[in-house]
Amino acid sequence: MRKILFGLLVLGVAAALIVGELHTKSTEQTPLEKLSRQYARRAGPSVDHTKFAQLQARFKKPQEVTSACIACHNGRDEEVMRSSHWNWERTEYIPGQGIRSVGKKNLVNNFCIGVTGNEPSCNRCHAGYGYAEASFDFTNPLNVDCLSCHDNSGEYTKAAGGAGMPDPSVDLARVAQRVGKPQRLNCGTCHFLGGGGNNVKHGDLETALLDSPKTVDVHMGTDGLDMECVDCHTASKHQMLGKMYSVSSMNRNRVECETCHSTLPHADGVLNSHTLKVACQTCHIPVYAKVNPTKLTWDWSTAGRLQDGKPIEEKGPHGEDTYLSIKGSFTWGTNVKPEYIWFNGTASHYLIGDRIDPSRPVKINTLHGSYDDPDAKIYPVKIHRGKQIYDAEYRYLIQPKLVSTVPGDGGYWTEFDWPKANEEGMRLVGLPYSGKYGFVETEMTWPVNHMVSPTSQTVGCNECHTRKNGRLAAVGGFYLPGRDRNGPVDAAGVGLLAATLAGVCLHGAGRAVAARRKRRAMLDARPEPAPGAALDAQPEAAADAASETEGTERS
Amino acid sequence: MRHYVYGGFERFWHWAQAVLILFLALTGFEIHGSIHFFGFEQAVAYHSTAAYALMVLIAFAGFWHLTTGEWRQYVPTRENLLKQADYYLSGIFRGAPHPTKKTPLSKLNPLQKLVYAGLKTFLIPLMVGSGLVYMFYRYPQRYSVVSLKVGGLEWVAIAHTAGAFLLLAFVITHLYLITTGQTLTSNLKAMITGYEDLPDEDPHGPAASA
Questions:
Q1: Prediction ipTM score
Q2: Can you tell me the distance from the alpha carbon of A249 to that of A368, in angstroms, rounded to the nearest whole number?
Q3: Is residue B70 situated within a structural domain?
Q4: Pairing label, strands A365-367, A437-447
Q5: CA atoms of A23 and A62, how far apart (whole Å)
Q6: Is residue A40 part of a domain?
Q7: What is the radius of gyration, based on Cα positions, of chain A?
Q8: B135: nearest CA in chain A?
Q9: Which of A360, A380, A500, A508 has its CA at a distance of 20 to 30 angstroms from the CA of residue A447?
Q10: Does the distance separating the beta carbons of B157 and A510 come in below 8 Å?
Q11: Does residue A263 sit at the B interface (CB-CB below 8 Å)?
């Protein structure tokens, strides 16, 4: 009876558990499922711009398009003119450097160095028309380029070397009638191709994201949610959310994974506790540059090698440039494991004119943070290592003039004359040039935020919690279980165990030897030894012999 | 004469604790990076589960010790302490009798009392304490992550590791000393069955051998 009751009880509990499990599965959505549904919904445009009379005109100049746009969308031009996409600088507090106005306009990098003097080429990516030199009028709203971000036809392109002017082939009216919310191509044209080619700069932003599976980017995968850049990089009054610490300094306006996924997104408590010190990206972006290679090093010192007086190009196995006379030598990488740093959301920058120590790599930007900093977490970064030109006497980086607009203006890319390019470039930034130059190693740090992998490809525990060659091997300031140990304590511990083992072995051996000796002595003492029976006859011996054989147990 | 020395709960507690401590050592030293068996992730999960199980067991054992008065078995004494040490160092090789008489009311010799008291008042609390801090030194709450402000894991982890080495050294010694009872296996059998043949009137008691 009792057995039956017990059996029934067990069955009842099991049934309740199964029903409960099935019930929650069928009705409750996980937070991730809710997010997926929310972002799967797509709102179409609210109006059809092809029907507007204002856009039927034959636009001769792109400024006329802007004029037509802001005739209805009044005030939007002013919003754009307050944004970084327009100003290419913003006032920031830089730790250790004070309040400065910094941005693409005046910072240097270790790719094509800097904008000043090279505006016609670099400023193809400016959200405006005609920023061909530093004297560009940033107050003229007609120069705002609405189409570069809002073209939905995919036909709008800016002219190479055109300082932001559209390519002459573009049918402005056709594009103006097909405007809408920014799509991946709008953002990608500049953010994928920065630095002079696909994926050169970021490593996690490249043309493959226009159409790639979830394994490349779980958010943007066209076989999945197919999200747009602006789904995360939302904007209010044309101020886009998002920061890149190559040009930003302060911990504000960042796009955070937590905004959608919460600070405790895992079902597992141990994983959730990691979120205090480990950024989401660290585990969820195991590698970057998953499809096309990204530039890892750039050595300007080899530039200028000509063949028959003409610049040359050398390509690697995947068609990537390994040498260009105009730029020097490069190395590239695909499926690159990020490097990891403590980062609290603030960065300082090399500002043009800052003194350098040429014996050490110059940090173009420095991301701050440490374990003890409550705002800091471990982030994955791409570190782009360069070797670039500096003034050997004044000991600061040189911003050479690279692009030629008129013959003989010193642009290195046509004249291959460093002294002249240095002289002209430094004149434009307003700093003296000594005439002596050298090449110095530089490092630039780019946080990796995109190319988030599906859960199945997340970085495993043992990739960091391991003694040798772990992903966090170089990240210091804290004790990481599995990676770290205290040498003396471990040595003492192992020594203790060895000594204990040796001790008990010796002690046991001693007992065995003593027992055997004693038994033999007794056997010898007996006049007629009777093997087998002897032990039982001698209580004294038996007690000792017990340590040798179990068979001799007795009370 | 046959005595019932170890009660049912006492034996269950002993063996459960033995299994848990060995399992904790296995998973713990995997977390430490010394060995590879389950993989780090599983080792952490198993170690935490076993730790909770051990803490529940310790709670029950503590209750048992207090309510039965068995805790008195572990009160260290100086009486016979040196004789017991002398026995292990030399007497045992000569076949000298045990200097301490084992009875159900006094199961432990002075050295055992000292070592077990040390275990119960120092080593186990050190392991449980550092283990709890290890688990909770930073922990998530519903809408935020709150940090137990201990600065970092380093000293917690080092204390826990050092304790683990001591505990393991104890286990090795303990396993060996099992064989030093009245016979090679009498101690083991007693802890399995609960019964042990104890000499009631030992003609070779301490007094006789002195």
A1: 0.90
A2: 10
A3: yes
A4: unpaired
A5: 60
A6: no
A7: 35
A8: A270
A9: A360
A10: no
A11: yes
